[in-house]
Design a protein that fits this description.
Elements: H1 5-16, E1 24-28, H2 33-44, E2 48-50, E3 54-58, E4 61-69, E5 74-76, H3 84-106, E6 118-122, H4 130-140, E7 146-153, H5 156-165, E8 168-173, H6 193-203, H7 215-221
Helix pairs in contact: 1-2, 2-6, 4-5
């Protein structure tokens, strides 16, 4: 049983110390992953950013995931037959939501550069793993040196899927009787938007010499991020990795 997110994060940070001399970035899944990511970033002396992704629902069943959208790209399961105009509309709509949320948390700051860096993706727990799987896929497009997923607790089934996609996975516990993330915390209070903003602004630093040249930042500002260009943007993925 974990006391709270801070204790869990400190345990993860200890296991991540072997990467402390690397050039890296921590990407936290908001909102619950941000307090975890904050502690890890502080211990490693790395910048903290957020990893945002949202599923694309099937037109006849929104709970059935047929793809996922991030700030800079999207993935789509080609085994599912949906109208192209539906896909384009959904990607544009979802990306606008993500951009609004990102700017709410980080104002007009651009995303951290992750190309050729060790990237730690973290959340406070993993149930199905679908969010992290989509984030891993989308982050890998920016060609990081290594992708590590660090989480305090995960269901065994989800962890197995994530281990197949990430370069390394660090998880404190994978109980067979997993029912929900909260059952393995003594204290699991809801993380507020205010707390997310405090953590992000309290840790994040700017690299003015290189940040503006980041391809990821350029895509966030450019027309592709607004959903106006779809040529070669979709990526075929295994259907089992996108089912809710």
């Amino acid at each position: 049983m974990l006391k709270n997110r801070t204790e869990a994060a400190n345990q993860l940070a200890d296991k991540l110390q072997k990467f402390s001399n690397e050039d890296g970035v921590v990407l936290a899944v908001p909102r619950g992953g941000v307090p975890v990511g904050f502690e890890i970033a502080q211990k490693l002396d790395w910048p903290l950013d957020i990893a945002m992704s949202k599923k694309i629902g099937h037109p006849t069943n929104k709970e059935y995931a047929i793809g996922a959208v991030s700030l800079t790209g999207y993935i789509f399961n080609h085994d599912v037959d949906v109208p192209r105009d539906y896909l384009e509309t959904e990607v544009a709509r979802i990306r606008t939501e993500l951009q609004n949320q990102y700017h709410k948390y980080l104002d007009d700051k651009t995303p951290a550069i992750i190309t050729d860096k060790v990237v730690v993706i973290t959340d406070d727990g993993v149930a199905t793993g679908q969010t992290l799987l989509s984030i891993i896929d989308l982050v890998r497009r920016d060609k990081p040196k290594r992708i590590i997923v660090a989480t305090p607790v995960s269901s065994p089934k989800a962890l197995q899927k994530i281990e197949e996609q990430a370069d390394e996975v660090i998880c404190l516990t994978t109980p067979e009787d997993f029912r929900s993330v909260s059952q393995f915390y003594e204290s699991f209070e809801q993380v507020t938007d205010e707390e997310v903003m405090d953590k992000l602004h309290g840790n994040r630093y700017q690299d003015s010499n290189t940040r503006e040249t980041s391809a990821r930042a350029e895509r966030l500002r450019g027309p592709e991020a607004k959903g106006t260009s779809f040529k070669d943007k979709d990526r075929e993925v295994n259907s089992r990795d996108l089912k809710s």
